[in-house]
Design brief:
Blueprint: H1 3-9, E1 17-21, E2 28-32, H2 50-57, E3 59-62, H3 69-79, E4 80-84, E5 91-92, E6 96-98, E7 106-109, E8 121-128, E9 136-140, H4 141-147, H5 150-158, E10 161-167, H6 169-180, H7 191-197, E11 203-208, E12 214-220, E13 223-226, E14 229-234, E15 249-252, H8 260-273, E16 275-277, E17 284-288, E18 292-296, E19 305-313
Parallel strand pairs: 2-3
Antiparallel strand pairs: 1-2, 3-17, 4-19, 5-6, 6-19, 7-18, 8-17, 8-19, 9-16, 9-18, 10-12, 10-15, 11-12, 13-14
Helix pairs in contact: 1-2, 4-8, 6-7
Length: 315
């Protein structure tokens, strides 16, 4: 029995819930406990200590509860000190946004991992599952780091990676206004607000251009300790998407390009330990965004509907 299972069994609220392993790593699935009787309420998840379980599992799949969108928003708020957003997406409720990133496959990445605003928690709610394909992918950064060569580990431990791109004015201003949360609109915030709202310890430089767009240069290590552990995880956005945004320039902090053989190695290693989430209607997935990267297979059913939310854990 692993630590997550011990945590679950020692909490009174978990009599109504069942925890089982998912995939080949630490991930767990939480379902209503059939031995507890009919009518297990979605509300049981509010008392289940999901954040504590997440620290062990890396990501959790909640299945069989059939929540509404309002239920999903409430659950996010229950476990979050605050939420953030992708300024290019539309809100559905107080915390959820519709995932709208085209139909092509999406490479593994941390949500907002190439910015100083990466959330600690990443949530998905499958409102309508695809009839074929379109799976969300997950990759545990612990497993990747353990499998990388000594040369790769030494190269990425020696210096951070730098992400640089330009963001349109309407997007960075919307983000700044939302994070400030003081009633000011997008036209009233400044670059100073972006610095103030950046994650603690972020190494970032902003430059506002004459047309109001914003160029940023952000440095962060590709492998690092996680939110809940000092263990090193390969958790970054080196293979990540650029839908709705300019493709970033990604290189080492000293300005040098990442060697092709290292790119080939971490691409191969991540692919070897990547797993699919076979969505069912009503599923919720909670991801430790400091440890587990996610992506997506090509969408073959455009009618699927997935919401997501980004947030920070309660202390």
């Amino acid at each position: 029995m692993n630590a997550a299972q011990n945590t679950l069994q020692t909490a009174k609220a978990h009599n109504a819930l069942r925890l089982t392993s998912v995939g080949n790593g630490d991930a767990m699935m939480i379902t209503p406990n059939p031995g507890h009787g009919a009518g297990v309420s979605f509300a049981a998840l509010f008392e289940a200590g999901l954040d504590g379980l997440l620290a062990d599992a890396g990501h959790l799949l909640l299945r069989g509860f059939q929540p509404t969108v309002e239920d999903f928003n409430d659950l996010v708020q229950q476990y979050s000190s605050r939420t953030t957003l992708d300024p290019a997406r539309v809100f559905h409720g107080s915390a959820a946004q519709k995932v709208d990133s085209g139909h092509d496959p999406i490479g593994l990445h941390l949500e907002n991992g190439g910015t100083p605003y990466a959330p600690e928690l990443l949530w998905f709610h499958c409102v309508k599952a695809a009839r074929s394909g379109s799976e969300t992918t997950v990759c545990d950064g612990y497993r990747v780091w353990d499998a990388l060569s000594d040369r790769a580990k030494e190269a990425f431990a020696a210096q951070p990676v730098r992400y640089a791109r330009t963001v349109p004015a309407e997007l960075w201003r919307r983000l700044a206004a939302f994070m400030a949360g003081d009633g000011r609109g997008p036209d009233e915030v400044t670059v100073a607000d972006l610095y103030e709202q950046a994650n603690p310890g972020s190494k970032v430089e902003f430059r506002e251009n004459a047309d109001g767009s914003l160029h940023y240069d952000f440095q962060v290590y590709a492998a690092h300790p996680t939110k809940w552990s000092t263990r090193t995880a390969w958790a970054n956005s080196l293979l990540g998407p650029s839908f709705n945004y300019e493709t970033p320039d990604i290189r080492f902090a000293d300005g040098s390009s990442i060697p092709d053989d290292l790119v080939a190695e971490y691409t191969s290693v991540t692919e070897a330990v990547t797993e699919d989430i076979p969505w069912q209607d009503g599923d919720i997935v909670l991801i430790d965004n400091s440890r587990v990267m996610h992506g997506r297979r090509a969408i073959t059913d455009p009618d699927r509907a997935i919401l997501n939310s980004q947030s920070y854990a309660r202390s």
